[in-house]
Amino acid sequence: MNNAVILAGGQGKRMKAPIPKPMFRVLGEPMLEWVLGACEDAGLQNICVITGYEADQIRNYLGDRCETAYQAERLGTGHAVMQAIPFLQKDTDGNTLVLCGDAPFIDSETIRGSLEHHVAEQNAVTVITASVEQPFGYGRILRTDNGISGIVEEKDATPEQRKITEINSGCYWFRTADLIELLGEIKNDNAQKEYYLTDTVAIALNDGLRAGAFCSQNPDVVLGANDRKGLLTLNTAARMAVLEKHMANGVGFTCTDGIIIERSVKIGAGTEILPNTILRGNTVIGENCVIGPNCVIENTEIGDEVELNTVQAYDSRIDAGVKIGPFVHIRPDSHICSGAKIGDFVEIKNSEIGEGTLIAHLAYLGDSDIGKKVNIGCGCVTVNFDGIKKSRCEIGDYAFVGCNNNLIAPVSLGKYSYTAAGATITTDVPDYALAIDRGTLHIKEGYTLRKYAKKKD
């Protein structure tokens, strides 16, 4: 069986937040999630995550997804992998991949390709590497005709070695049995008194074992983050990679300023995403839509030819041909049916808006079932909460709800019914009926003359 050990015990002091470094987010997902997902996509299901700083945060995030081991003291990468020895001893016949939980851009193709290379060359250890234009600060790979002779760090490299552009990613394949033996031979006789996993390469060679390197086609596998600036670099790289993928699939961007699209989002060809738009979670957007500017869409399914302008929508469904905005809030569990039009300053919550229904402006519709081709007047509110429980309103097809109406739930308006402006509806209105709620108008003549006369006195 092939295993994966993910090192996720780092504190990340320079991040200046009480969060384990691998839990900082890149495009909305913890860096650890990126690494876990790559392992799972590559078919590695037997995974152990090494925790350390604020270990409960990682354990709570993982749940029963994989095993964990705790590194009580942070004494180097080799020491971290030592904590996984009980996990490794369960099956020593296969191979083990060791990865960094704060290097999110490892990909499944690199994992699979490096494993094939590792097995084909019968290596005890295979270092995953990348060739980069600016290798400064990284360990250089020293190759031989038969594999590699070691990894030399920047500070220890000769001028000639510093010219090498193939660098260590911090990811390694080991034969599991060899890894257990090599961990037992690592020493901490260095200035930091730490156990370094990189030492396993030299130890393996000294023991007569074979060491090799696999150069990934993805140079970003080496990228990690030690501070907020580094985290911003990761987010920028990830953001642009996602945008480029969508552009290749026919999605348009006239300007990418402020556009953040999480990698789980799906967008149809011909759709245009305008600036300052954020698309999150399991959002699916159809073809030939215009989304933005200034939209936040999360876990929402959007049909074809939809136009959203300055809209926030969460956990909802918007069918084809809908036009919404500006300044509209679609709260969870809402369904906007095809052809509906929703104008400025409208909030919808847990409601169905029927086909072709018009809600022009300044309305709140919560816990409501609204039929097709209904007209909702300006200032309409469904009063769905009485302080104890929430109730629903029903509005039939082709109804006309006047301006400044309060619909006191539970209440039902029949099909083709009308309600007059300013009405407060507390009882059901039958089909084809007109509901008028007007109190007696009192006019007091000369009122303002008397009022201002008192003011002058």
Task: Provide an overview of this structure.
- By secondary structure, the chain is α/β, with parallel strands linked by helices.
- The chain has 2 domains: 3-222, Spore Coat Polysaccharide Biosynthesis Protein SpsA, Chain A (Alpha-Beta Complex), CATH 3.90.550; 228-435, Hexapeptide repeat proteins (UDP N-Acetylglucosamine Acyltransferase, domain 1, 3 Solenoid).
- The protein contains 9 helices and 40 strands.
- It has a 10-stranded parallel sheet, with no helix packed on it.
- The longest helix is centred in the middle third of the chain and has 21 residues, at 228-248.
- It is elongated.
Helix content: 10-25%
Give the N-to-C terminal Cα separation: 96 Å
What is the annotated CATH architecture of the largest domain? Alpha-Beta Complex
What's the CATH C level of the largest domain? Alpha Beta
Strand percentage lies at 25-35%
Question: Ranges with pLDDT <50 over ≥5 residues?
Answer: none
> How does the major sheet shape up?
10 strands, parallel
Count of structural domains: 2
Sheet/helix structural class: alpha/beta
Write down the Rg: 31 Å
What is the CATH superfamily of the largest domain?
Answer: Spore Coat Polysaccharide Biosynthesis Protein SpsA, Chain A
Short characterization:
The chain has 457 residues and is α/β, with parallel strands linked by helices.
